[in-house]
Amino acid sequence: MKTRRHFLQSSTSLIALPMLESLGFRRFASAAAVMAPPKRLIFLGFGWGITDTTWYPDIKTPGPDYALTTGLKPLERHKKDFSVVQGLWNKYSNEGHWGSTMWLTGANRYAQPGQSFHNSISADQVAAAQIGLQTRFASLQFNSSENGDMSGHGPGLSMAWDVSGKPVGGQNGPVAAFHRLFAKDSTPLSQQKAMLAQKRSVLDAVIDNAKSLQRGLAKNDNAKLEEYFQGIRDIETRLSKEEQWMDVPRPIAPIKEPAATAQGNGRSEIELIYDIMIAAMQTDSTRVMTFRQPVATLLTAMDIKVHPHDMSHYHTTLGEKLDASQRRDISQSELLAGFLDKLKATKEADGSCLFDNLALAYGSNIRTGHELSNCPTILTGRGAGIKLGHSIVAPKDTPLCNAWLTMLHGIGVNAERHGDSTGVLKEIVA
After folding, report:
1. CB–CB of 361/418 below 8 Å?
2. Taking a C-beta distance cutoff of 8 angstroms, is the pair 37, 367 a contact?
3. Whole-number Å distance between alpha carbons of 321 and 328
4. What are the residues whose beta carbons fall under 8 Å from the beta carbon of 316, sequence distance 6 or more?
5. What single-letter DSSP state applies at residue 318?
6. CB half-sphere exposure, 226, CA atoms < 13 A
7. Phi-psi category of 100—alpha, beta or left, where left has phi over 0 and alpha has psi -120 to 50?
8. Which residues are registered as beta bridge partners of 84?
9. Cα angle vertex 26, ends 24, 27, to 5°?
10. Is the dihedral of CA 109, 110, 113, 117 positive or negative?
11. Which alpha helices (DSSP H) does 173-218 contain, by range?
12. pLDDT tens sequence across 270-303
């Protein structure tokens, strides 16, 4: 099969020619079928939960005729295009400070005897393994530029975890995210290939050494070594991807490079990462993205002095903690509404818009304080056949991973189950 790289290499003369009608370009252009846009998957996560009394719709009024709460009011213009789902949770979650660590995995942190931490593959990486094969980046992970974890996300380098349950690194802040997508590598191609060959040589030596060590190991040690080999296989996959795209130029950025002065302002960073996500889709650089959003610097940008962790315990004293939590909810909803505006306004080649071809989840593993049940969940996008415009109340103890499995199926990912899922979430299937 011809790859995109081969096509570009063999098509230089075509690219150099102007569109000459006498050579039939008008006829060919009109006859060419427009390809259907690809499906995309996005997860937007935040820490420290929400204000449960003013964020969740009344469970007594499910369906399309529910009233928007104060926390969701900024999303009113999109009410028909998103659904709020209540009743979902990760049953193994037991850490009230981890808003993202197990959000997309549903893992049991004590699943491995003798270990205090275990994780499994996240839903975005399940999708990346299948729908990320045709793009430069199988997936992209975005973070804020915050130092440490003041935003209640918990352990991890991003919201993504690989097939071995190891953390996947992300781009910290909008400047790093922009450079990852659009920065041009000035290293000569011959030197890039030599560097890649050196990496492969080192990798081969490591594999040989590990295989020689494998003989005579105990069962537990062999299991650990198999995890190590899986990590090696992941590196091999990344090197193959790097080789595939090495001589394909990075796309021209459809947006300006973010100013360094925007770093550290939570609201500006969220807006900029949303713009970068749209640019990534416009250039088809990736089809799977996660964003571990800032909370602490968002509060600072709003001139809120309350510590973000204290804000999540607003039940104890109400007052300024409750006010901070409610204002945070409104600000996050305003930012999400702006993102949906842009997704709907950005056109695809076939006349549809980005919003028509993606599935997006917005939420957290934390409800409020240390409460981990009824995870705040908004589902949107028309790309996965999900019921939109509804307040949906799932049956008691429904796994959050049922929603992720439904989204995966909706965008065409073949997965029998995910995490602790018990099946698709029938309540959200349109």
Report:
1. no
2. no
3. 11
4. none
5. -
6. 9
7. alpha
8. 378, 391
9. 65
10. positive
11. 174-182, 189-214
12. 999 999 999 999 999 999 999 999 999 999 999 9
φ/ψ region of 16 (left if φ > 0, alpha if ψ in -120 to 50, else beta) reads alpha
**Under 8 Å between Cβ of 398 and 87:** yes
Report helix, strand or coil for 417.
coil
The strand pairing partners of 361, in sequence order, are 43, 379
Residues 337-354 have a mean pLDDT of 97
CA distance 120 to 23: 56
Q: In what order do the strands lie in the sheet with 377-380?
A: 171-172, 140-143, 288-292, 40-45, 358-363, 377-380, 82-89, 391-399
User: For residue 84, which of 46, 53, 58, 47 has the smallest C-alpha distance?
Assistant: 58
- 128: which 2 tokens? 């990346």
Q: What tokens were used for 238?
A: 């990344």
Q: Is residue 200 helix, strand or coil?
A: helix
Burial class (CB in 10 A: 0-12, 13-18, 19+), 99: buried
- In the chain, DSSP finds a helix count (H) and a strand count (E) of 13, 8
Per-residue model confidence as pLDDT tens digits over 27-36:
444 555 678 9
CA 323 – CA 344 distance, rounded (Å): 32
Which residue carries 């029938």 as its tokens?
A: 426
Q: Alpha-carbon distance 153 to 362, whole Å?
A: 14
pTM of the predicted structure, to 2 decimals: 0.85
CA distance to 243, 291, 345, 358, per residue, from 258 (Å)? 28, 17, 21, 25
- Taking only the tens place, the pLDDT of each residue in 41-85 is 999 999 999 999 999 999 999 999 999 999 999 999 999 999 999
CB-based burial, 179-215: b 16+ in 10 Å, e otherwise: ebbbeeeeeeeeeeeeeeeeeeeeeeeeeeeeeeeee
125: left (phi over 0), alpha (psi -120 to 50) or beta: alpha
- Residues 394/397/400/405 CA torsion (nearest 10 deg): -80
Give the CA diameter of the chain.
77
